[in-house]
Structure formats: structure tokens, C-alpha cells
Design brief:
Layout (H helix, E strand, L loop, with lengths): L3 E8 L9 H16 L5 E3 L17 H5 L2 E3 L10 H10 L2 E9 L5 E9 L4 E7 L20 H4 L10 E2 L23 E6 L6 H9 L4 E6 L17 H22 L3 E6 L2 E3 L3 E3 L4 E3 L5 E4 L6 E8 L4 H7 L12
Length: 329
């Protein structure tokens, strides 16, 4: 049975240290409205979508640092974020957003949430597991730093797949007599940036029957102190390589787990000098790129997919027993 879903990546251009929260929020709302003109049902925003990618900076003032975080569980009601959720509910579009989370215990996480417009609630949260970089800045004063290990704890929620309710009409519901995989609400999973490079998250989701994996990211285009090959590369060569590796892991893992994926970048030169790659894309269970960003600015990447396309790989190729929400035998 076809299960058609219209999905979009909301790629964002650069957000600077001096960018006002209200301006960034308005850009996100405009992207959401643009996606609505395409009848998108689900929109993915990037990692740390609400602010600049602050972990590249050494910030020692706690008040300043906390200004980049969303605090406790107030993201639905905070003035910095509420208008976006209100608009998503008005338009009837589910959204997933990456942000810096500060818990009531004072811990920081690089997090993402999934908001169901039909329910009007956050139904899933993920915290980034694979934190890259260092805790201290590089000695090279010109280096591009990656201080996630300084500001964030490793994620502690695991890779838990979930169903997105009522995105598709006339599907089997929990408790119905239809028990087969591929008949109910879409099964989704979330990961963030560096997580996409490692097999653990993908396979955990694959074994839970995930049909669509969402991945927001902020990936440096040129950071030779942080990563790269042994040979020296120009900034252009390094960015080309980074985009290649990004799409490689999205395509390969989508194919290996017979699922669709959406990846959404924050891209361009933040603060005029810190380059982030674009490359936002939607990938099929066969590993094909169905749609991708044309540039490095604010842009909607859209595709209409049929989740039935996941069934061939999951039922005819994979030898793993898949039971959503239960222990794998």
C-alpha cells in the first residue's frame, strides 16, 4: 500500500555571533511557510538552528554562554521559539529542530526534538552522542576550533525510533489487527551531524524499522587542525571533500538500512570567515539523492516519497528481525 509523504530540509545560510534571535527565528518561519507552499508535511531544520555554531568559540562568561542555550523544558513557550511552533501548528507541518539544551541540573546537550503539529506537542527528543573536537582550544591561534566536548555532555537518550502520528491518512494504528511492518504511521529516527558518520545510530534505527532518518548538521568546510587527510588541501578542495563525505554516509547508510533520510545544513560563512558546507539532501532507500541544495543560503529542499519503497530492502534483503518498540530477538 502506498504511503506518500512530502518532506523537506530547511537549509539555513549563516547565523552570526551578532545575529539577533528574532531575525533568525523569522528566517525559520519564512522557510517553513515556503515549505508549506509545496504541501510539505514534515520539515527538518539544522543542528543549532537557533544560533550561530557557538562551539567554535571559547566563551568563558557563563551568562554569555547560556544565551546560546534553550533552558529546561521551555522551548515550546519561550519567546525565542514559540512563534515557530505556533506557525507549524497553524500550517499543520511537523518540524524537527536542532538546538543547544540546558537542563535544570545545569548540563548541556546538543539536542534535537520532533514536534507533532497534529498533537501540538514534542513527541521525541534526541541528544547527540558522537561529540567531535576537543575540550580546549588548539594552540594555533588561526585554527577553527570545535569545543563541543567543553560545552556538551554526550547524549544519554540512545537511538530510539518513534512513530509520527497522523502524517499519512488511513494507515494502521496501534491495537489494530494489522501487525505487519510498513502499514502504520511512519517510523522515524533522529541524529545530529557527526553521528551520521558512524554505523551505531543507523543500525539501531534500522533494527527498529526506521523508514526515515533526520539529520541536521553544521559541518566545517575547512578546518585542517581538526580533520582532513594527510596531504594538504586548499579550502576549496577541503570543502569538496567534506561535501563528498557527507553525502557518502547519507547515501550508504540509507541504502544499508533501507530507509529514506533527510539532512539539513547550516551553511555559508558565519561571521564572514567560518565556512560551513551546504549539501542538504533527501536520499532514498536505494541510496540515490532525490533532491539537494543548489547553494549555501536559506533554501527548501523538497521531495515526495513513498515509504513503501523501504519494504523491498527490509523484507527481501535484510536478515534481521524487526520489532518496533520491542527487544530485537
Amino acid at each position: 500500500m502506498p504511503r506518500i509523504l512530502k518532506i523537506a530540509a530547511a537549509q539555513m545560510g549563516p547565523v552570526h555571533l551578532i545575529s539577533q534571535r528574532s531575525e533568525t527565528l523569522q528566517r525559520m518561519i519564512l522557510l517553513l511557510q515556503s515549505a508549506s507552499t509545496l504541501a510539505a508535511q514534515l520539515v527538518l531544520f539544522p543542528e543549532t538552528a537557533l544560533t550561530t555554531f557557538f562551539p567554535r568559540h571559547l566563551i568563558e562568561n557563563r551568562v554569555e554562554l547560556d544565551s546560546f542555550f534553550e533552558h529546561n523544558e521551555d522551548i515550546l513557550s519561550s519567546p525565542n521559539t514559540k512563534p515557530l511552533f505556533d506557525e507549524a501548528k497553524r500550517l499543520g507541518i511537523d518540524i524537527s529542530i536542532g538546538f543547544a539544551e540546558r537542563t535544570s541540573e545545569g548540563k548541556g546537550y546538543n539536542s534535537s526534538i520532533y514536534y507533532s503539529a497534529r498533537i501540538g506537542e514534542i513527541i521525541a527528543k534526541y541528544r547527540k552522542v558522537h561529540l567531535p573536537g576537543t575540550s580546549e582550544p588548539f594552540e594555533n591561534p588561526d585554527a577553527v576550533n570545535q569545543l563541543e566536548k567543553r560545552y556538551f555532555e554526550p547524549g544519554n537518550l540512545g537511538f530510539k525510533a518513534f512513530r509520527a502520528p497522523d502524517l499519512i491518512a488511513d494507515v494502521a494504528k496501534k491495537g489494530s489487527q494489522v501487525e505487519e511492518q510498513g502499514k502504520g504511521d511512519p517510523v522515524l529516527g533522529m541524529m545530529i551531524c557527526n553521528d551520521r558518520r558512524w554505523v551505531e545510530g543507523w543500525r539501531c534505527y534500522g533494527l527498529q524499522g526506521a523508514e526515515l532518518v533526520l539529520c541536521g548538521y553544521n559541518t566545517a568546510g575547512f578546518a585542517p587542525d581538526l580533520w582532513g587527510t594527510r596531504r594538504k588541501m586548499t579550502a576549496t578542495e577541503a570543502e569538496t571533500e567534506a561535501v563528498f563525505h557527507h553525502q557518502l554516509v547519507m547515501q550508504a547508510n540509507s541504502y544499508m538500512n533501507s530507509c529514506f533520510s533527510i539532512s539539513a545544513a547550516k551553511a555559508g560563512f558565519e561571521d564572514g570567515k567560518f565556512d560551513l558546507i551546504g549539501g542538504s539532501c533527501i536520499t532514498s532507500p536505494e541510496g540515490h539523492v532525490l533532491a539537494e541544495a543548489k547553494g549555501k543560503g536559506d533554501e527548501i529542499v523538497f521531495a515526495e516519497i513513498d515509504l513503501e519503497d523501504c519494504r523491498q530492502g527490509k523484507e527481501k534483503v535484510s536478515s534481521a528481525k524487526v520489532v518496533v518498540g520491542k527487544k530485537i530477538d
